[in-house]
Each structure stands twice: as structure tokens, then as C-alpha cells.
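Lab notes, practical 5.
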Amino acid sequence: MVEGVWWYIDALDTTAGSAFASYRNADLMDVEELSEPAYYLQAPFFRPEPVASRALAFAATRAEHQLGLFDAKQEVAFASLEDLTEFVRRAYVASGGGDGAGGGGGGPTPPNPPDDEDGPSPELPDLGSSEQIQRMLGFSVRIQNSDDGRRSIEREGPTQAWPIANFQPYGPEQLEARDGYRALSVAAGVLLLEFFRRFPRGPDRLRDWEEGYWRLNSFLSYFDFYGEFSDAFSDPVNKTIAQHGPLQRWLKDHPYEERRWWSHEYRWLAYAPQRNLDVLDSLSLWPVPESIAQKRDVSVRDYLATYLASPGTLKNTHGAAIILFASACIASQGIAIPWGAYSASEPYARLSTAGLRWLVRQLPSTIFEDRLEKLIEDARELRVAEFKETVDAS
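Output from the prediction step:
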């Protein structure tokens, strides 16, 4: 048990971004301290507000809040209210925020095909030498490999926190037009290819699949990404279509769909302007390939939320490109992409740089030791702690 008086979470709901905190000893169930003042904080501003009694936190656990916050050994103590607030904010972001599908709005992604029906995963095009993508990945590697005491699990004091500047985060530098275009278009192509791979085997999920597919194509049309696909994605897309009879029949009923990817003649076939769509709802409908997310049925929105809460989780360059593409979709309002500008024009530098600047502003201010970073990463699975067993064990 941690000795001394520190900041503790009395009750927590990560999905709502809501928590009660108090400055006390490590005894969550000490009824003599229930009358002590506490603080309440909630999304979106996370400004701690004093409340009259800790009893309000216990009352909140009768609804959606969990009681306390424990790691594998003991109740988690924080050195300051600022550190505690940052933990709650990041856990909220990691949970997806809100009560809809996957934590957010929108709807479910198309499910992965059953293992016995899933053909070999197509080979993804190379991203080339995008310097900014490498910087994003290098930043995650530095967080993963840091040994500044972050791996300690025997610490007797409160959890430690380090400014994110210690890990040399990337900055919002201007991207070269070609690098920005390549990163965004490859990410878009990876998502489009995953949609084809997940085409439903029966009619019951077709409407959901089409909704996500049309939304993705709306962004691709607006960004005018189709020119790159003919070079990078023709082989993997054709192989995926050849393995999938239902998808072949759907394409036969929608003949313009296949033509528009490979022919400049058909790139004018744009869908409804992307600015009329809710961006976060759209991100909720787009699946990330399992080979990139390392999990099944992860949406782009959830993948982005996990990265923003735990930037050390990024594992590969295609994942970094998808993060940048999602950020560009969010930051794209007001950025005009003239038709016929594809592959080397200044608008793509503005688009990718706007996404990067938005992304940098969302990064956490603090990195905790590994045990807390793991709790943040698994925020969706946070449940009421078995505090009695934990206290007895300590």
C-alpha cells in the first residue's frame, strides 16, 4: 500500500469522461473520510470542481461509475490533481467517448469474414520514404523503449509522469506535396481494399457495408485520390475481387464502381460532398485491417482514439498513414481540392499538413509509467475493481 496522502480516483466512468477525486490515504473504503471534500471532473473541459463530500462518488457507482482505480497491486495514487485529470482525459479518449457503437457514434464496421472463408491478405503497397510518417513511428518507438523508470512496478510512492517533450514528439512541419499525397492516398487505398475484403456474404449486412463504402468514396472523390490507385492498388484489388463471388456480382450491378478507380475518364463520378457528412460517424464505419491494428474489427475512429490516448501503441508505417488520413479528414473543412490536381499539387501539402497540425494538438501532455499507460490503452475494459482482494493482498 502506498504510504502518505496523495490524489486518488474515488469513482470513474471512462466512457463518459467523468470522475470523482480526493486527496487522502490509500483506503478507498474508510467511511470516516466520506465527509471530506472531493473534486468532480467531466468531459469535455476536465476542469476539477469541488463537491461537498466523497459520498457523491459512492452514489455515482450505483449507476455507470466504477469504484476506485486499481492496478495489479494496489490503488493507483497520483502526485497531483493535474496528473489525475490527464489520466481521466486520456482514458476517455481511449474509450472512444460516448455510448454508441465502439464507444462513439456512427455504426459498426463490416465484420471480418470467417476464417474458413478468408483468403490470403493482399500485399499492401509500400509507402515510400515519407519522412513525416517515419517521424510519427519513431516517436512511438521512443515511448515504447524508454527506460526512465517507466517500467517500475514496485514503486512505493505515487505514479510517475513525464512531459511528452522528453520523448521528442514530431512537430507540425510542412509536408512535401508528393509525400503528403502518397501517404494519404495509400492509406485511403488500404481502407478501400479492406472494404472489398469484408463484402458481406449475405444480404443482411449489405446496407451497413454500402453506407460505409459510400462515405469513404465521398472523401476519396473530394480529395481526388483515384489517380494513384491505378498504380498502387490494381493488383491487390483485382485479386480480392477474383476471390469473392458476391463482390463480383455487386460490381456487375454497379458497373461504374470499378471503372472509376482505374480511369481518369470516370473520376468525375463523385458522391455527395464530404462536408455534408459527420466525419467521426464516417470514421466509425471504416475498418482497419487486422494486420495493421493487431485486433479484429477495429474502426478508424477507434484506432485514432487509441493512438491519441496512447501514442506509444503505433507499430507500423501503414498504421501511421491511416492516422494521418483520419486526421486530414477531420481537418479538411475549408480546404479546396481542385479537380485534376492529383499527385503533386500544393493542395495536398495543405491537406496533409492541416491533418498533421490537428494531430499534434491532440497529443497528450504527459506520459505515465508503463502500468498506467496499459490501463489507458485498455480503457474500454476498465471495470469495477476487486478492491477487497487487492487491499488484502497488499
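Observations recorded by the TA: Residues 20 and 104 are 23 Å apart (CA to CA). Strands lie at 6-13, 18-24, 38-42, 49-51, 66-67, 161-163, 287-288, 298-299, 366-368.
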